Amino acid sequence: MKAIWNGQTIAESEDTIIIEGNHYFPKSDIKEEFFKSSSMHTHCPWKGDASYYTLSVNGEENADAAWYYPSPKEAAVKIKDYVAFWKGVEVVK
Q1: Alpha-carbon span 52 to 36, nearest angstrom
Q2: pTM score, two decimals?
Q3: pLDDT of 37-67, one tens digit each?
Q4: Angle at 81 (CA atoms; ends 60, 15), nearest 5 degrees
Q5: Which residues are registered as beta bridge partners of 62?
């Protein structure tokens, strides 16, 4: 699977995990040069607290377009160190 935004592949993996229709990519398979930490946080009752990244590609930013669970709850432990996308990021085979 590939995650693409603004014409650039920002993550590529054959080891994604699908939860609630979202592909979670191993953190080791994202291209970290396109990711900046964000102050955004949200809470999921069964996964826990999510942190976000802002994408920066070709001089454009996509605020809070990627999220991850640094310390997921037990029910979601398999997505620890995995990153998912939204806000116009295209995930394709």
Answers
A1: 9
A2: 0.96
A3: 999 999 999 999 999 999 999 999 999 999 9
A4: 90
A5: 55
